[in-house]
Amino acid sequence: MRCAAAxxxxxxxxxxxxxxxxxEALERHLHGCEACRSYRRDLAVIQARTRARPVPSLSxxxxxxxxxxxxxxxxxxxxxxxxxxxxIGQRMRWAWAGAALALLACAAVIFVTMRGQDGLDPAxxxxxxxxxxxxxxxxxxxxxxxxxDQLILASIxxxxxxxxxxxxxxxxxxPDFMEGWSGETGSRVxxxxxxxxx
Amino acid sequence: xxxxxxxxxxxxxxxxxxxxATVAAxxxxxxPAQERIRRNIHTLRLLQMTQALDLSxxxxxxxxxxxxxxxxxxxxxQRQVGLAVRELRAIIREGKAQEERLPAAVERVxxxxxxxxxxxxxxxxxxxxxxxxxxxxxxxxxxxDFYQGLGERLRRARGPGR
Amino acid sequence: xxxxxxxxxxxxxRRGGPEAFMELVRRHRERIFAMIYGLTRDRSxxxxxxxxxxxxxxxxxxxxxxxxxxxxxxxxxxxxxxLNFLKKRSREKDRAVFDENLAPADPAAGAxxxxxxxxxxxxxxxxxxxxxxxxxxxFKAAFLMVVNQGLSHAEAARILGCTENTVSWRMHKARKxxxxxxxxxxxxxxx
Lengths: 198, 162, 191
What we know:
The complex is a heterotrimer.
Chain A (H helix, E strand, L loop, with lengths): L2 H12 L5 H12 L2 H18 L8 H17 L11 H26 L11 H15 L2 H20 L7 H4 L2 H4 L4 H11 L5
Helix pairs in contact in A: 1-2, 1-3, 6-7, 7-10
Chain B lengths: L1 H23 L7 H22 L3 H38 L7 H29 L2 H26 L4
Chain C lengths: L5 H9 L3 H23 L2 H17 L10 H23 L27 H14 L3 H11 L5 H8 L3 H27 L1
Helix pairs in contact in C: 1-2, 2-3, 2-4, 3-4, 5-8, 6-7, 6-8, 7-8
């Protein structure tokens, strides 16, 4: 077992999520790997210390004040009105409308494909077609190209920095994955994750 | 919930319709800026796809190299489409003098476009084999959301008055 | 002691009973405050955000379908309110990117002035606080919910609106980042 996988299992084990079979496999790995044993020790200390961190509470006087303020705001708020769950007929109306539209879309797809295309499903054009529009506009407007690219890079930064992507950082070191990156993207991800990320 | 289905269907419909408008137009020649944009969009797509489909590490390790390879192939094909379209326009501009070159030039553009479509089909088929049924459904929705996101960014990049 | 269930109180509150809603607030305010404080580490902010959470919950009560418990629903609102607050706070001030590959913090230097003879344990606790604070918001939320609040991955996933696998992965990454940052202090504690 590789240490990277073992360390993920160590984390799962701390949260009681490891199966019996995997626990045994992990213990076998730990038996021969001091680095991972040290890793587990450190994580256990972090776990215990985090749990032991004190959480201040508000005093009874503070809670009273809190309640008075909240109640004042609540009484000012518009009265709560329970929303009726839409009747089945109403709900179905939207679903039928959506189904009809989807059927129209399929008819359009079939109609246009019968007009002498090569028989490949035009839905596959969607990604390329989206890019086509972007390229058409940005080719004629370098300022637009730059602005648009910056927005994409910012989104990449958000995805990597904010942990919104579950992309394993180990994968960033995979040359096959990096192959598709521009130099600037690589720099941006490197900035977010440090020199060792790439 | 049904309203969401309606709006997503509408969006899919609009996206599919617009894709025909662009196929009817010829391929757009791409420069370094467009190639850079393409690579960055691809990276963003992978990052957001991981989250949307909840890909496991094993899935990501299998899927990403293949997606990257197919994307590189398609990018190169698009570049060639741009060159072929430019050549086709030049031939048409020169008129009768170069008319005999037209069929080959047209066939070149068409065969490159076919190759790009085949690349997309290869990508979709590969993904089908790697994803669970739930993930496949999520992929459909993710695609719609992703293209919508690109459109929104383009609008923001245009800014007011562009 | 009020022995009405949360469901009864929600129904009463919906029919125009602020008193019923305030009883719900009294039952759950401590835990909500504790969770928000865990994320923000600022009493005043935690108090404000707790207010904001319950006020938001009251306004949205008409849409609450009781598919989950009232507590889970409010907890989720609290997490979203806190994460939005943290994102806004991090945009407003420069934050060092949390980087597991950065050299670990120098034990000799200190953002917290340690009195002479401060134990390694106290140093670790201070650094732990900083390290948890510096985690990316989604990692921090998952980590504190599971470790501090004792939620299972499944419960945390329901509240965060993601899958268990995602929570599991965020826990792993959060721990990796914390350990990278705290290594010098952990080894001092061991010694």
